[in-house]
Design goal:
The protein has 245 residues and is an alpha/beta fold. The chain has one domain: Rossmann fold, CATH 3.40.50. The chain contains seven helices and 14 strands. Helix 1 packs across helix 7 and helix 2 runs parallel beside helix 4. The longest helix has 26 residues. The protein is globular, with a radius of gyration of 17 Å.
């Protein structure tokens, strides 16, 4: 690992989990560096200086992680890359979500939570609402209410990243891909806590889960497959939109 000097990055890819960062790093041949106390992957694909980081999971870590990056270096554009959960049973796993609006569900009021609009980027027309929350939502009534508001997917970080970017007048965009569905029973509170806050697997919790639920091995394999597919597709779409070649 080398130390990278403070510099200007045209694009910064921001991911919540290492498994979302990995395909970005591999596809762009980025190298791991250190900026201040941060681990940052950097490179110059197509002659354009880029950075990529993992913030950890949830709004608080996402906000602090992107703030640390933007305090340390100058960034021209922030791109959120990763996976997201659908709020219906019909959206295929692997569907790219480019929301028109991102809502901070953690500050929701009767009048609606804080709303952010991604900066247009690439050729796909934005559509739908992405709902950022720090809790698992599976209640059918709550899901139905979200669908009625035009919500198409749920995530844990995007609104927090958007708020930090907009505070600094930095354009930002979202490339997230459906990896699971909130209504099909594939994710529950136990599964929700099988990851550490930094986005790495919680090995002890995973071992305990499979000891208690051996019948869930096949379902968990499908869930993991969806996550990997989603992370790969999100990275591919974001990189293609950047037109590095």
């Amino acid at each position: 690992m080398e130390s990278a000097p403070n510099t200007i990055f045209e694009i910064a890819f921001v991911c919540a989990m290492p498994m979302e960062l990995d395909p970005v790093v591999q596809k762009l041949t980025l190298r791991e560096s250190v900026i201040g106390d941060m681990s940052v992957h950097v490179g110059s694909p197509g002659g354009r200086r880029v950075a990529a980081i993992v913030t950890g999971m949830g709004p608080a870590l996402a906000a602090s992680g992107v703030a640390d990056l933007l305090d340390a270096v100058e960034v021209g554009w922030v791109i959120v890359v990763g996976i997201t959960g659908a709020v219906d049973d019909d959206t295929p796993i692997g569907t790219l979500i480019r929301p028109e609006t991102v809502v901070d569900g953690s500050t929701d009021t009767p009048g609606g939570g804080s709303e952010y609009r991604p900066t247009p980027f690439g050729s796909q027309r934005p559509a739908g609402v992405m709902w950022t929350t720090d809790r698992l939502i599976t209640d059918p009534k709550e899901i139905a209410e979200l669908r009625a508001r035009g919500v198409v997917s749920l995530d844990m970080e995007t609104a927090a990243i958007a708020a930090e970017c907009e505070r600094r007048a930095i354009p930002w965009s979202v490339f997230r891909v459906i990896s699971d569905r909130a209504t099909d029973g594939s994710v529950d509170e136990e599964i929700f806590h099988l990851s550490n806050e930094d986005g790495t697997p919680n090995d002890a919790a995973i071992e305990r889960y499979f000891n208690e639920h051996p019948e869930r091995v096949e379902a968990m394999a499908r869930l993991a497959e969806g996550a990997v597919l989603g992370a790969e597709a999100a990275a591919e779409a974001a990189i293609a939109a950047c037109r590095f070649d």
